[in-house]
């Protein structure tokens, strides 16, 4: 077997395993957590980046703390008591990356992707796609949003050792969902813009103190990120967040939206999206209304692409697709018919081809350009229900 693609079995308790794949690109991948600021206006993200290989590297936990299991249980099952079961099943799973591994220097600077999670998720649940992109030479900043859309999250107050938790919030009774979610999507897009500013501070040599005193000093990124090559990406609520971030920040050159939930974006904004978007949809999630909104964008910008991966469900683009324990995967509804490794390969290759085109990268990612037209095994252009009497 090719050693690069051998999956790691992350946890074995209760017969459940999470087999997250290693990145298939040429770079080993390092990972660290970054929290900046002592209020909820600060930022919290997990950073994936090309690193130097080192023997015996520690691999980080997939679910960083038990509180996240409680948040997941509340969001997916509306039953907080299930968190103990989730902790037992998933608490020892690890991500096959090098925790605080030394950054691999790159004189030209790596392109940057800012990643936005879906509703009820958090910064680590897209580790498979973030690891894959980092292995091909990107720095990926996976945000944890503080708009009450994460399963749970927290910040550290200035008072030593005190944490303040921000729980997931359902739409309040009597409030229209659109207005509640629209306010959230604007906050989320602003957070993406603030991450870009954070990297601007780092690359300009400002000292940016990480509240977590990690072995990786953020100043090593100073000459290793190319801020002329920045994209924004996300899944579901994060997909529409990425589209809105293009409106708010001209330095984002393109967006990749995985199964975007288009509902929260106001119609006024569609004519304002200035840059190309790659929509990678799953077969089972999208509605004709949602796809019609995507097509409004593609009709305005010929570089915007819409493709659908067959045999996939909404969770196929998250790490849950790699859970092998039947009970857990049934709870999270994570099983499409397409092999998750194949789904990840299509998602990442289409993304890389699109990013090469719009970030002007000098790589060989254009070998996957056909995917952008929906040409290939398990891929179709646009959405299946939009195909006219084929």
From TrEMBL:
BP terms from Gene Ontology:
lipid catabolic process
Q: Does the keyword Hydrolase apply?
A: yes
Entry keywords, A to Z: Hydrolase, Lipid degradation, Lipid metabolism
Query: What does the record give under GO molecular function?
Result: 1-alkyl-2-acetylglycerophosphocholine esterase activity
Could you tell me which Pfam families the record lists for this protein?
PAF-AH_p_II
Active-site residue list? 236, 259, 314
- The record's EC number reads 3.1.1.47
| Superkingdom of the organism of origin | Eukaryota
What enzyme class is recorded for this protein?
hydrolase
Fetch the InterPro entries from UniProt. Answer: AB_hydrolase_fold, PAF_acetylhydro_eukaryote
This chain belongs to which protein, by name? 1-alkyl-2-acetylglycerophosphocholine esterase
